[in-house]
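FYI - complex with flavin mononucleotide, inputs then prediction.
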Amino acid sequence: MSTQLFYFSGTGNSLQMARDIALNLDNTELVSIPSVSAEFIDIKADTVGFLFPVYAWGVPRIIMDFVSRLKFKGDEYVFAIVTCGGQPAGTLPQLAGLLKGRGVELKAGFAVLQPSNYILWNEAPPEEKQVTMFVQKEERLPGILDVIRGRKTMPLEQGSALANFILGLIYKLSLKGFPTGDKSFWVDSERCNNCGQCVRLCPRANISLVDGRLQWCGNCEMCLSCIQWCPREAIQYKKKTIGRKRYHHPGVKISDLWKRD
Ligand SMILES: Cc1cc2nc3c(=O)[nH]c(=O)nc-3n(C[C@H](O)[C@H](O)[C@H](O)COP(=O)(O)O)c2cc1C
């Protein structure tokens, strides 16, 4: 069996999940979605996995764009693991629809709870709670691996029909606002030392350093990784993030997520 794991991750939860899966399967290639710049991508493996976070109860824009560029043979075993802070709603059925449009069926989809990185609502959960979530994730791994190794078909994990419907409407409205939502980022100039980490990190290459000032360019994924990873906590969003504890997965380094072309 050969496997390609395509991942997108703002703060490391989904990357760590992808690494956990890769460590336990033979002949597996890990592919960072923001780093794949080819227009169309031929799938080479016979098993394909997608790992990414839930955004606003649905599939992040970067995943939708990526899936639309994939060329499958048609007989691949396809699965997905989404990480989320509490409610995946209809994310996996939505992904299944996107994949169907590419000629393949999503055979299994798992929603794994991890610390929420949505700092616009809440700061990072306390460390003890994070550890509990990491342990619970470890406990889920054998079951997930058993499904993948056995190429089993499983019901997609999701919210209730009512939750999926209501949250699905909110998803559509929210997603439209994400690209230009970056107007509300600002930089505390007393803290920022122009290290450029956010520029390297941004999965959309949406941040540039012009004449010593950071600029967001209207194509934001809203992953918030610039806020979460800034070594000096210099990046803020409106007044919502001031004083809030930042989060990233403890097993992942900022350089693991740098965009590479
Ligand atoms: C813009 C945005 C929207 C989010 N929306 C949801 C959501 O609808 N449901 C949920 O459970 N978690 C949500 N989260 C939390 C992330 O899905 C969760 O923390 C995920 O594990 C982060 O993965 P990463 O570290 O790989 O980026 C959201 C996070 C962001 C940044």
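The helical segments are 13-23, 61-67, 91-100, 127-149, 161-177, 197-201, 225-229. The two ends are 28 Å apart (CA to CA).
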